[in-house]
Amino acid sequence: MQVAKRSTPIQMEVGAGGGEATESKTTAESTYDQIRHLASGNAVVVFTINGCCMCHVVKQLLFGLGVGPTIVELHDKAAGREIHAVLRHLAGGDTHQQQPFPAVFVGGKFLGGIETVMACHINGTLVPLLKDAGALWL
């Protein structure tokens, strides 16, 4: 069995947002483009934050399956807040029902958070998704 190379955590840097609405929108679009580029360039990308136990669970699940995801750890910086806002939007808008972390992308597409990843694992669709994305060879 071959295992995809395990990536080391990285910190994603994007430009800081400004005070103007136009500049803020441009920054959000730039942040979205950077997330999209990172997700499309890697088989599996996991966005995490420090101290998040569910982020740890998702990483351990993927490592246990033999997947080496690209892990983006966000810290309390301006760039982290911008990425957090984009991931919250992807996770279902501004509702507080769905937490944006961990945010898992598989094959360049947003899979979801802990609930979606665990549901896919339990119903048997996670491994085929990972195989299709090239993250897992069995």
Automatic annotation (TrEMBL):
One Gene Ontology cellular component: cytoplasm
Gene3D superfamilies on file: Glutaredoxin
Highest taxon above the source species: Eukaryota
Assigned keywords, A-Z: Cytoplasm, Redox-active center
Start and end residues of each stretch annotated as Disordered: 1-26
Location of the Glutaredoxin domain: 44-110
SUPFAM superfamilies the UniProt entry points to: Thioredoxin-like
Bilayer-spanning residue ranges: none
InterPro entries (UniProt xref): GlrX-like_pln_2, Glutaredoxin, Thioredoxin-like_sf
Subcellular location as annotated: Cytoplasm
Family designation: Belongs to the glutaredoxin family. CC-type subfamily.
The protein's name: Glutaredoxin domain-containing protein
Annotated organism of origin: Camellia sinensis var. sinensis (China tea)
